[in-house]
Each structure stands twice: as structure tokens, then as C-alpha cells.
Amino acid sequence: FYFRNKHRPFLLFVSLLHVHTPLITTEKFQGRSRHGLYGDNVEEMDWMVGKWLLDVIDKEGLKNNTFVYFASDHGGCLEAHRGNAQLGGWNGIYKGGKGMGGWEGGIRVPGIVRWSGTLPAGTVINELTSLMDVFPTVVHLAGGAVPQDRVIDGRTLLPLLQGTVQHSEHEFMFHYCGVFLHAVRWHQKDSGTIWKAHYATPVFQPEASGACFGRGICPCFGDGVTHHDPPLLFDLSQDPSEANPLSADTEPL
Questions:
Q1: Which parts of the sequence belong to the Sulfatase N-terminal domain (predicted)?
Q2: Residue 15, domain CATH
């Protein structure tokens, strides 16, 4: 692909099975990670991205004019298991995981960008972006314009990445599980405060597990979710683990 297109613009989309279930790892990487089979998958994915993509881009002299964006479509899957052994991922301090429409563990994903010679290395941007932003970013890079006859939810990432703006254009973000709205995030303008309201949350099985081990994956509706009226409200800027829901008594605003 690179050899055929290296002298003209190209778009290469690579969707890896890693680290989705089933966890299929080649023999070379089995047992490599102290985090078990899931960790082996992470290490193999890391090797594939480096060896098959970034190294080839560099060798073909495309490093300085190729925009690379690495991301995931959801947080780590917690319910993966083999027998009694839990094989799922780990989402750090963030609650929940894949298949949960609102909790941070299912929403926060890697966002790693490389464009040598154009974007400064080592920059960390703590602003709200979305996978919906990939489309307008690619259109922008190609010198095109997004359709004007419909609402485009994404925003080009380039101004944020290049430092010409300091804040994301996303003031609100809506988090769905399937077609059901589970949560809404509001990044209050001219403020570092980020509010999140949960209208529905999955029923964890067991209750304190933080996952839906009984079902294998959390459902989006029916008896598998709890509806909240008023919604659960969190200040993510102070409580990123979503451990302490606010009330009118604790947060008058």
C-alpha cells in the first residue's frame, strides 16, 4: 500500500482485533506480559503498530508529512474471562469499562498523535475530544470542506494540536449506550469545571464489582440498567473516579 501511494495522498485505516475479545495472541507474544493474556495482546498490538506502520512510514521517508492518530473505540473490557480467570483490561481510576454508555472507564480511550516536523513532541492536551473528530480532521488535512447540509458533530483537531486554540469546541458531549442516552458531559465555558449527569447506569453483577460479570457485558436498557431521576451528578474535575455523586445539599450550584 505504501509503495503504491507514497508519492500521493493516502488514507490508511487499520482496525486491530487487539485487545478485543476473543483474546487471540500469536505464540511469539504468549506469556510476555506480567498482566496475563490481555497484557500479551497489548504488547503484540504495540509491536504491530511500531513494526508494521511507524517503521515503514519512517523508512519510506513519509515521517514528516504523515498524520498518525492512534485511538480505541471504547475502554478496556472488564468481563472477559476463561473459566474462573479474569482476562479483561484495567481502566485505572476510572469507573466501568466497555459497553457502559456513561462511566468514564468506557469512554476515556488513548488519543495519541504523531506528525513529525509539524506537531511538537511530548505535548499533553487535556481537552475533551471525540472519535467523531477524526472525520473533519481528515477532511481538513485533505484541503476539503465538511458537508454544509447537515449537522456534523465532530470538530477538526488541528487547531487544538497546533496550539492555535487552547480549548476544545466541544462544550457538551452526549454518551449513548446503543440508541439510549445514558449520560451528558458539560465542560463549563471559561472554567476548568466538567460536570457529568447520568440518566441511566448499568446494574453491576455482583453489585460492588464495577462490571456485569453475570451477563458477560452490560446491557443498555431494560432490567439491566437503573434510571436516575434526578440524574446522578458528578464534578469530574474534582472527582474523576465518579465516586461521590453531588446533591443540592453538597453542591448548591
A1: 5-143
A2: 3.40.720.10
